[in-house]
Protein: Chromosome segregation protein SMC
Amino acid sequence: MEETTQSSGIWKITTGFLAVTVCVLGYYLKNANTVKEEQKIEITNKVQALTLTKIRLDSLSLQLDTKIAQIKSLGGQVDDLLAAKKQLELDRIQLKKDSIFSTTRYENKIAEYLRLIQAKNTELSHLKKENVRLADNTKLLASENASLLTENAQLKYFRQVLSDSLDNYYQKNLELTATVNKGAALQAQMVQAIAVSSKNKERKGGLFRVAKVDKMKIAFQLLPNAIAKEDNKSIFIRVIDPKGSILYDSNVGSGNFDLMGKESVYTIKKDITFQRKGQSVEIVYAKGTGIQYQVGQYEIELYCEGFKIGEGHFAIK
Structure:
């Protein structure tokens, strides 16, 4: 009788625990779509801010070039403008490398450049007035006329060069915006690992016994994308072991790829023909003889066209 009572109690506790678990899972599944949409909006806003900052820095570069040419042609000092131009070029390079983009930091830099340009506008106005006064009070010699004609030709050339550069920068900005938007729009969800035994029996759940894992199937869903081209794309997958090392075996498909301008390694890759309506993707990873699974949690990272598009995890016991 006492054993029956204890069994009944254990059964009630187990039933209650399972009910709570189902409720929690239901809550997270209900809110998953809302979280994904918010993440997509946040990424789009960041891409727009990054692109706008790039265009503004390009425009400031052209303005500094113009001011240097104008003030130099009028005999003014341009050392501070040249120093600002050098720093601006460094900021443009840094913008491409920044992994964490800060709008405030670049807004402050842009404000400083604008203040310098405004100050140089005042200086340029004074220089022009001084040149007009000298022209009114001095008869120019023939040789000076020839010199002025030459300087005029140079200024026209500079203006044409600046105009051509602006067109080139504008076109490059359009291409950059299209590329960044396309890469940012690609997102993978429902990333899961499925253990495959030596008898090809599949197990789900994310927690697997090391003796039951012969291969690992990684499955995920690509979200619909109305902007990206329906062409061939490579999806690179990195599996990171509990010690932080990336699983790598060239005999089973591991290799190198470009990640944010730097060479990195991947565990396995999958070539797909991308569909705008979204699609399911699966890839089977055979770890090879040179790799042994260790007990602990493994991380899964997915990359496409230089951007991280999804992540997941599984554990070995």
